[in-house]
Write a structure and sequence with these properties.
Helix content of chain B: 25-40%
Order of helices and strands of chain A: HEEEEHEE
Mean pLDDT of chain B: 81
Shape of chain B: elongated
Number of strands of chain B: 6
Oligomer: heterodimer
Radius of gyration of chain A: 17 Å
Shape of chain A: elongated
Low-confidence stretches of chain B: none
Distance between the termini of chain A: 54 Å
Strand content of chain A: 35-45%
Chain lengths: 132, 137
């Protein structure tokens, strides 16, 4: 039983550490405005070399990719613009970025930090816009 | 005493594991809406409890359902528009946040949306203020 649990926890940890790309939307019934939120995050070595990031390709087969940097403004913005093109007659407005970077390595949920910055870093980009 | 401690712990646990759905309105010159729905999840994908978007600003929550979606935030924004008698909305901004407990065992996932509600009275107030300022100049 114990090895199975250990493998399960290790698999969960790997999936979380890998990165994740999400695109979701919601529509205001009253005005018809559609709010779109695109999110991607990943992990980097020395703040520069991507280890694993969410897969931002529209034809992605896996939710994450290794050694490729998809947590970039242009890639995330392209997905938002591609989505807006699927809604003809609507204009994309109020585009806002929300970026976050952790340069001190610490596993989420525990306080311990490796006291050397930029060894293992975490980066997240979110972009939101309104289709009117 | 033991019963009191147990009850306190039970209430604390319920508060910890229940999500929340909140609609906050600020009416200082402009009418702004801030919406938040949060949930607690096991391993980030098994929902334990989420805020109930049908009961914003109350202690209601949904067990074993994930209500943290942009669609539900838009529902609550619709609710705020109706409540404030707004004729429109602008500057809608959404983002999500995550907090982890015990590495990746538990996650508190939240979706935030803010927007300015266009309320006719407030617009009239602004027109009046602009007029007064331009007259003073």
């Amino acid at each position: 039983m114990k090895p199975i649990l250990t493998k399960f926890f290790a698999a969960m940890l790997a999936v979380h550490a890998a990165g994740c790309f999400t695109l979701e939307s919601g529509t205001l019934a009253r005005t018809g405005d559609e709010n779109v939120l695109v999110t991607n995050y990943g992990w980097y070595l020395f703040g520069r070399f991507p280890i694993a990031t969410g897969n931002a390709r529209s034809d992605a087969l896996t939710p994450f990719v290794f050694f490729r940097d998809d947590v970039k403004l242009d890639k995330i913005q392209k997905r938002l613009l591609d989505y807006s093109k699927t809604r003809p007659g609507k204009e994309l407005r109020d585009i806002t970025y929300h970026t976050r970077e952790n340069v001190m390595f610490n596993l989420p949920g525990i306080e311990f930090q490796v006291p050397i910055p930029y060894v293992l870093t975490f980066r997240e980009i979110q972009i939101t816009g309104v289709l009117q | 005493m033991k019963r009191l401690v147990k009850s306190t712990l039970a209430i604390a646990a319920a508060a910890l594991f229940s999500g929340c759905a909140a609609v906050r309105i600020s009416r200082v010159e402009k009418t702004m809406a801030d919406i938040e729905i949060s949930s607690w999840q096991l391993f980030s994908f098994i929902p334990i409890a989420s805020g109930d978007p049908m009961q914003p600003n109350e202690a209601g929550f949904k067990l074993f359902r994930d209500t943290v979606t942009l669609e539900n935030n838009m529902r609550l924004l619709d609710y705020a528009i109706r409540k404030e008698g707004a004729t429109g909305v602008r500057d809608i901004v959404s983002y999500s946040t995550d907090e982890y407990v015990f590495i990746f065992l538990l996650r508190r996932h939240s979706m935030h949306t803010s927007a300015e509600l266009i309320v006719p009275d407030v617009k009239d107030y602004y027109k009046t203020e602009d007029r007064v300022e331009s007259e003073e100049k």
